[in-house]
Specification:
By secondary structure, this protein is of the alpha+beta class. It has 18 helices and twelve strands. A five-stranded antiparallel sheet has the order 6-7-3-8-9, sandwiched between helices. A four-stranded mixed sheet has the order 2-1-4-5. A hairpin with a 2-residue loop joins strand 1 (about 60-75) and strand 2.
Length: about 425
Amino acid sequence: MDANPGLGRALPDLLPIQMTDASWFKRRRYAHFDLSICEADAIKYVSEPTNITRHSFFPFLAYDLKFRRYKSSEKGADVSTKRRPIRVAAHRDGYIFAYYAHLLSQAYEGFVNPGAISRCSLAYRKNLGSNIEFSNAAFTEIETRKNCIAIAMDLKDFFDSIDHQVLKSQWCHVLGEKRLPSDHYAVFRGMTRYAYVNREECFEALKIENVKSAPHPLCDAKQFRDVIRSKKIIRVNLNQYGIPQGAPMSAVLSNIYMIPFDQKMVELEQEVGGYYRRYCDDILWIAPAEHADTIQNRTISTLSDQGSALGINHAKTTVSRFVDGKVSEGPIVQYLGFTFDGKNRRIRSQTLSKFWRKVVFGVRAARRRARSASSEGGDGKLYKRKIYRRFTHLGRRNFLSYARRAWSKPGAGGVRKQLRRHWERIQKEINEPLK
């Protein structure tokens, strides 16, 4: 048996915090195979290890998140679609994953702090800053060095390539256990040998028209047995690698999984006098130019130790050489949504295009709703306040507020120029005749 029959914890001093801190709880209101439960019931259930050991997980609901992408070509705009597979956990399952993600985040922070890994592993961690601070720090490093290379790498199909045995070993490591406690092992199985149902197939089998009309829960226990199971649309991950992207635990597990890799990269960083940062599956190296081949080769070979399925997406690897603070070879650096050419810091053009597409779709949708209301005898008024909250400097926690934080950084005047006419563009879209 792989699980430890005992229910002990490696970090007992954290228990009082774990039992009272409910920052991990977020009410889930989407339609799934079970009903959402209140905070008190969720805390009571997940904080008792025997409940988790005996828990039977529902299949995830699976769908693809689609992003429209535009690529320039000689013949004009080439429209393509990027797909990101998302797996949504059932309500009670999601609370379990969120709670254990909270426990493991505490364990991970205790494991890497203080230490070099803590400053190199950036994603999904609290109080470290945002992509603005991370990219600004990297670009400042290039400015300081003046003569260097910047190597940007991307891990291919990262979450689908996480090796289960390596993950299990690292999970034990951060807990300080030789074997996983039985409740942690149950969660590990739920995240590795997970079942899922394609959402479209599920809705078709249950005769549900769309997400908005979906009942809560999607079906009762009898329908689940007689329809979902009998139609054999439940799939199980039988691979020895892969965890569901979109699950509440995926983020922290990815950091735990990459600890050995980060340790080796920190050693290489010291060896070559470099600057290494990893944000989930995005890797950035800044170092003296003579170490370019060593860095790329060692990064690739070290990744192979993390499991045979994990590797670099070579098509997305870029090498930029800076001489006297300016790009002399290769493309400008792109990192975490921003670009840098040695002088100008800007928002990545693809990110900006995505924002403007959202503006166009959002404004046109609001205008169509107003026109529909007018045709049905309503006032037909276009409520601009919501549009302004979503897309302009008048709103909070939107893209413009994020961009304004970016252009407040030294050397980021280019960001201000990129968005200085946003109000005029939005007004033009509001007043454009609807087709």
